[in-house]
Amino acid sequence: MSLQLQRASREDGGRSRVAAVSATFSAGELTVIIGPNGSGKSSLLQLLSGDLAPSFGRVRLDGNDLASWDRLALARRRAVLPQDVPVNLPYRVAEVVALGRNPYFPEARALTEDAVRDSLARVGMDEMAERPYTQLSGGQRARVQYARCLAQLHPGRAQPVLLLDEPTASLDPRWQHACLRQAQQLAREGWCVVCVLHDLNLAARYADRLLLLHNGGILRAGAVDDVLNDRCLDQVYGLQFQRLQIAGHCAVLVT
Q: 227-249: b or e for each residue (b if 16 or more CB lie within 10 Å)?
């Protein structure tokens, strides 16, 4: 299984959001996309999800253009956690997570309940299943939406694709690590996981591969140490980073 961008570009109003990007995202791998604000990270993820169509080039899943996929079949294969999660859904937590099962309607109620229960347990929200969604904190809402994505791909669809846009943005440190450990574990289970992150040290800790974006294009791609030790990182962010090795992982500090 592979999700591919083949010289994919996206232009809106004469402005380039993604510029001739070619990349392959494979099952069994957690790829983290990094880069400064406005570098094209979210737009790239929207191309991968099918929420944006390329102005030029192709986006392919299993060798077929994403645009040719039946929308229901695609919804059963890939799930997307957007950067901005809904705030005012008038449902209980379990009902929000159950929305992820809509592509399988009608299915046995027990199957939906199993998927919801398992997904909430994975994000540590199982004890809040009956809580009104509107009473949750921002971080709790983010975890519920993450659970919705897991429920959408439960149980173990064939080589599922999970796309996460800033999943740790509203989480405290404990749940930032829990969220990314979960993403890492899913990749180990054969999922294709692509994640946008701003925190370079979280990216370094959990990614199998990094893509560094700049002005809508891939400036550097490869192993974590290779990308974070490349001086183009300093140029892109306009900072001087000090490189460290902590517990076997590369880390960066602003000097």
A: bbebeebeebbeeebeeeeeeee
Q: What is the pLDDT of residue 157?
A: 61
Q: How confident is the model at residue 159 (pLDDT cuts 50, 70, 90)?
A: confident
Considering Cα of 5, then 42, then 37, then 180, what sign does the dihedral take? negative
Q: Which amino acid is at 32?
A: V
126-146 pLDDT, tens per residue? Answer: 999 999 999 999 999 999 999
Strands 56-61 and 64-65 come out as: antiparallel
CA distance 86 to 108: 27
Q: How far apart are CA 208 and CA 249, in angstroms?
A: 12
| Residue of 253, 164, 238 lying closest to 207 (CA atoms) | 164
> 59-111, pLDDT tens digit by residue?
999 989 999 999 999 999 999 999 888 888 899 999 999 999 999 888 878 88
Neighbours of 67 (CB within 10 A): 12
Positive or negative, the CA dihedral 153, 217, 51, 204 is: positive
